Request: fold
Amino acid sequence: MTDKAVVSIGKIKLKNPLICASGEHVMDRNGIRAALKSGVAAVVAKSTNETVAAREQIKKADYLLLDENWQAIVGDSASARAATFICRSGLTPQSFEEWLAMVVEMDKEAREYGAYVIASIILADLDAAVSMSQQIEQAGVRILELNVGTPYGDEVEDDLLPTERSSDRIETIVSTVRKAITIPLWVKITGQSEHVDRLVLAARRAGADSVVVPGRFMGMIPDLETQRPYLDTNVGVGGYWNLPLSCYWLAQIHSQLKRERKGDQPVFPLVGTNGARNGEDVLRFLLAGASAVEMASAVLAGGFEVLSAAIAQIEDYLKQKDTQASNLIGKAAAVRKFADMPARKQPWKQFLSAG
Ligand SMILES: Cc1cc2nc3c(=O)[nH]c(=O)nc-3n(C[C@H](O)[C@H](O)[C@H](O)COP(=O)(O)O)c2cc1C
Reply:
């Protein structure tokens, strides 16, 4: 790994822009170690919160990988790129104490890799989140990710896994946690809003060091065989096809933030997620405005080798283009307005059949 791949999220220097996102693949030490060994710059541990119900929810979790015809398939690194991953998930079954001990130990091990293991809380009760954040900081974990935008808000009861869509509430939540801790605070935000940009700016105003955006969507897919929904419920859904939607928001937000920019570095670093399946996708997210990218589904589908292959692709590209990852951030974000485009001669004709 050369210095070409280094990026910064505020004061945190990442050895490359790839982060292994939170999920069942990093619920235990084995998973986290495998992710660290793959060479990623950081691993976000499977999330926790204070509620027993969210921990119990994982017993009812289910997962399915589908091909482009919505047929169930078995995952491997070859199919991971094109597959759609659907699930209903829950939180780690570990107690908060067990989970924290694991994250502390793993974040220490991560130093040997020049990497980080990030603690992740999914908000339920704000006071409890503050208390857990303080314990995380006191235990020596170096970064906290606070997820206020799971896809499951409307599916589970009592705000156990909220999909926060109000800028005001995000500002209140983030500023409350911000005041309680000094370690870098990354806030994960839903993509299920017509104002994702406003939610991000609210988190920033409230003192977040970065936002992870945009979170996954809910979906439902009818099964032709059973004539019921796959997995019988609404599901969190993700695929490579999410990349354009994620890049749209990253570019929108990057452009809004750019107006404040001084010098080369982004004024507020964004961590992209939702739709990156390999190294080339990570580079696309960077060009749209992300400073780093979190990947989960491709790892669940194809194993940790997907991460090492992605890093190799990123390095190859940087070498080939003789550039640095940090130079790519937001390079493609300056999209033009339709009205500014030159007139063209009936370009739709190329899509009409000759007959
Ligand atoms: C099975 C599964 C479990 C997940 N669990 C968590 C979680 O506990 N906490 C969290 O913040 N995000 C969680 N996520 C979201 C991922 O971290 C990631 O942001 C999202 O899946 C989009 O990235 P992707 O397209 O690479 O999958 C989960 C995703 C999946 C598919």
Remarks:
- The first strand starts at residue 7 and ends at 9.
- The chain has one domain: 3-351.
- The two ends are 54 Å apart (CA to CA).
- DSSP finds eleven helices and 14 strands in the chain.
